[in-house]
């Protein structure tokens, strides 16, 4: 019994020492100054916000804190400021052991450029996003659609974005009238009458099959209108 009690006392003492050392190390770490800033854009192929611009946001938070010491409790404030930026989807801020404040950034992803009393993007979440002075995204131009109607065309845009062929091929979507959309394609003179935003997979698949066949037989330059609004049919009008 005495041996058991002695073992428990030793275990408590060891745990106490470990907790003290961890707390002391954390305390010393929190007294360190932030030596530098490091920003990582997780998708650097499209720069809607630069590393320098993110660093400036971090520096503004450091100044508002009144000091530039390492403090784990402040990481949430860095992330809150970064996440309110209109070009940033999400962020993660953290300190390294050598006192570097780092931030990993996921930028918002445009899927369309909307023309409506000016220009702005529609992002992958279906939300408005301002244009960036740093980068212009090659996405379809949407016109004739008001801000309150974007939900209607959003499903079509997401399918275009998810398909490598359609993403490169379709350059514009225009609403002509109620439930009547027209598509413009890259490098061709014809228009694609899509009709209403319905049966998307069927219409898009039919168009891709038609396009590849017409391309194979070198017929694409003969058409001025491709009509997809009749369900399973692809109706073509020649020049």
Textual characterization of the structure:
This protein is of the alpha/beta class. The chain has helices at 2-30, 51-65, 75-83, 150-162, 164-169, 200-216, and strands at 36-41, 88-95, 100-107, 110-115, 119-123, 128-129, 141-143, 170-177, 180-185, 191-195, 223-227, 235-238. Strands 6-5-4-7-8-9-10-11-12 form a nine-stranded mixed beta sheet. Strand 11 and strand 12 form a beta hairpin. Mean pLDDT is 88; it is low at 17-29.
Quick take:
With 239 residues, this protein is an alpha/beta fold. The protein has six helices and twelve strands. Helix 2 (51-65) crosses helix 3 (75-83).
Attribute tags:
239 residues, alpha/beta, 6 helices, 12 strands, elongated
Q: Can you give the helix content as a percent range?
A: 25-40%
What would the principal axes of the Cα set say about the shape?
Answer: elongated
DSSP, total strands: 12
N- to C-terminal separation? 101 Å
Report the major sheet: 9 strands, mixed
| Overall mean pLDDT | 88
Low-pLDDT runs of 5+ residues are: 17-29
User: Per DSSP, what share of the residues sits in E-state strands of 2 or more residues?
Assistant: 25-35%
Number of helices: 6
Structural class: alpha/beta
């Amino acid at each position: 019994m005495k041996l058991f009690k002695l073992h428990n006392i030793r275990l408590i003492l060891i745990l106490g020492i470990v907790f003290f050392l961890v707390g002391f190390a954390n305390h010393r770490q929190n007294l360190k100054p932030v030596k530098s800033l490091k920003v990582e854009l997780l998708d650097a192929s499209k720069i809607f916000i630069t590393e320098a611009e993110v660093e400036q946001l971090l520096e503004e938070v450091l100044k508002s804190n009144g000091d530039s010491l390492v403090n784990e409790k402040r990481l949430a404030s860095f992330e809150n400021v970064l996440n309110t930026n209109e070009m940033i989807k999400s962020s993660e801020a953290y300190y390294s052991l050598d006192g570097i404040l780092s931030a990993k950034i996921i930028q918002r992803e445009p899927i369309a450029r909307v023309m409506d009393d000016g220009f702005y993007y529609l992002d992958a979440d279906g939300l408005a996003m301002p244009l960036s002075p740093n980068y212009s995204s090659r996405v379809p131009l949407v016109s004739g659609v008001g801000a309150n109607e974007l939900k209607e065309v959003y499903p079509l845009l997401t399918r275009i974005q998810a398909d490598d062929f359609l993403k490169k091929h379709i350059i514009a979507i225009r609403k002509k009238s109620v439930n009547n959309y027209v598509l413009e394609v890259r490098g061709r003179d014809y228009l694609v009458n899509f009709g209403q935003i319905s049966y998307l997979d069927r219409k898009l698949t039919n168009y891709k099959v038609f396009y590849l066949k017409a391309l194979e037989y070198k017929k694409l330059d003969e058409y001025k209108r491709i009509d997809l609004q009749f369900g399973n049919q692809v109706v073509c009008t020649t020049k």
